[in-house]
Amino acid sequence: ETGFIAGLLLLGMPYLLTQVPLMLVDVPTMFFLALSIFTFTKALERGGTGMTVLASCALFLAFFSKYSTWPMLSVLGVIFIIYLKRDPAVTLRRSAAIALFSCLLIGSFLLMKFEVFSEQIRLLLRYQKPGLERWGESFISTFLFQMNPVITFAAGYSVFAAFKKRDLQYVIVCWLVVIIFVFQIRRIRYILPVFPLVALMAAYGLRNIEGRLLRKLIAFTAVITSLIIAVFAYRPFALTISAENLKQAGEYLNSLDTQSVEIVVLPLKDPVVNPSVSVPLLDLYTTKEIVYRYHSDWFPPPKDIATSSLRFTWEFRDPEYYRGGGPQENNTLVIIGGETENIRSAPLAVKSRLQGFRLLKKFEAASDPFRYKTIVDVYSRR
Predict the structure, then answer these.
(1) C or N terminus of the chain, fewer CB within 10 Å?
(2) Distance from C-alpha of 311 to C-alpha of 31, rounded to nearest angstrom
(3) Angle 177-183-184 (CA atoms, 0-180°, nearest 5)?
């Protein structure tokens, strides 16, 4: 029942329901971390070659899913210590087998791709680590708004309930949550893999409420309210941001009788991101062949590019498959800019390029609060 309620409470976290497309790497990280904890525990309990291999493979996948998972895998050490008190000899033998096979897998892969991993570690230390100190969400936002407050309060109560019962196994569940608060890890994307453990803590707290129906009622209420927030608050907001223009423009292009589309991206007055990244985003939503030529002089990188959180957008260059064809071969032209009146701020080369074209459709939903906007104009040759 505790596991069922915990799984249910994951639906009580609107952040997971609405932000998954932005956090694709964090979703498998969350899965593999939970899988490694589960399989490692089962391997210590049951033993056997099958469970040892499964636990080692899960650890291998969690290890390489994301570098921020490494400190989180310290929970396996907590599991080892707790099981060591039960049966020292068996626990030592089984954990040693898992460690040996895991090190063999991880070490072999590190040696095969050593240059790649060493370069990524350097980037992590020089670029991402300083970035963590500049920005992060508050714990109030994460634990009271991005998940239902019932989950947070139930998880908090579970600490008292476990202490009262002297439940040593509870340390396994709360260990990573404690680390988050001790080390002040505030960026939510690094906390996300721990959400299943927060759900388990909340389910542990709810199970101390007398009455099975009441426990389920509280859990389902948390889920329903979160679904209402996700569907009637988060979703309408997501549909009004200017990035939606790219999606709608792509769908509109699919309805046109043309094989290829030429795209021109306009420079911005005060850019926070390289606007050329809009091209592959538009490409996600259209089946047409895209022709795009990157103008490096239009998009000079900012002075703080070395530490900018959007640094990698400035390293974008048009791939070879966007350079096929020629301007004269395309009867459809797409202008992507950041202003409602894109053409007013367009370079002279773009204005001359538009001679002989007429505006077919304009996508300008831009009620969002973000500085970077994507306004899309679709032109057709007269």
Answers:
(1) C
(2) 29
(3) 85
